[in-house]
Amino acid sequence: MLSKKVLRIFSLIITLTRAAGATPFSWNEKTDQIYVTKKAVKKAQFWLMVHLVFLLHVLLRTLHLQFYFEHDIATINFCLTFLFSLIMLVLMYFPQVVYYEEFVQFVNSMIIFLRNYEATWYPHINPDHTQRHRSLPNLLYSSILNLYSVAGCLTWLYFAYPTSAIFPNGVLPPTWQSSWITYLGIGFVYIRLVVIMASIILMTNAITIILSFSCAPVLTIDLRGDLAPEKHESLSGLRHPGNLTVVYRMVQICHILLLENVGYVVVSIQFLIGQYGLICNYAIIMHWGDMQLPAKTFLISQNVLIQCGWVLYLSLGAWVYTNSVKVLKSWKYLKLAGKGEVRYMGKFRKSCKPVYIGYPGLLRIRK
């Protein structure tokens, strides 16, 4: 269920990410839907191009160090780990900036589904008074605070070490390197990119958190046919075959929209995470004595944050798949009226597949 307070916070997140240039979305307060404008799309796509240019610079810089400064292994590995993290962030960029029309359709469809589901099957419950939705706003506010705090902490890397290999200052002519205009100009672009990175992650986290909290009772309680009646808060009519089949088909449609928007990103990041962990751990263990303290701190903190974040998403994927399997199996225990409904639900259950996070035919997160 979506409360008005949660939607207000979500609209705040949309406003922050659009102001940063990370996303092209705006919030319609009358319809509780998101939409895009041409100006916002151009702005977001411009900063995506800046990100790609920065990524290309780090890639070329890494290759240059690899071929011409082979002895500087610590710097090479530092650039390589930074390159991998940039690629993962750019991948998260694509659904929201390149395929923004499909993303808008997905988010709006989920909002419509959840609002209609709440109005139909929870008319007697105020979502603002449930324990689950009282904690959801605090979690969203903490995400905003934490991610932008991390972004602020990352800015020191440039101002402390502007000639680090990942920044373009080191390849500029000496006269340009000593210029305050160059120093502040590159610093401004770097800070803007860091804020945009935090905004992209914030939007992704916000949608994930809202959907997880809102869909949790649907998969764990409402659609289950093996639970005692007193455990259900939704109206009992939901478990009637005519209603249950329609609701689950809606869940499957939302699931298809989810896979279309994030499936390819999940597969790509799953591959990159494994390589990133190996490179980062190798650089820290084998070249500990060759790296300065800021580089060590940056690598360790970045590695911990990325790995922990991905473990949480994998755990969420396993939770979704496990509970979806339980839902399908529980339909054997529904109290049905007559053999006709038994045959109907049996055929329907065979036509259904568990929902999951991943990409059809390539990756399915199960456990």
Automatic annotation (TrEMBL):
Tree of life domain: Eukaryota
Keyword Transmembrane annotated: yes
Signal peptide: 1-22
Transmembrane segments: 45-63, 75-94, 138-160, 180-203, 262-284, 304-322
Coiled-coil ranges per UniProt: none
Record's keyword terms, sorted: Membrane, Signal, Transmembrane, Transmembrane helix
The protein's name: Uncharacterized protein
Lineage, broadest ranks: Eukaryota, Metazoa, Ecdysozoa, Arthropoda, Hexapoda
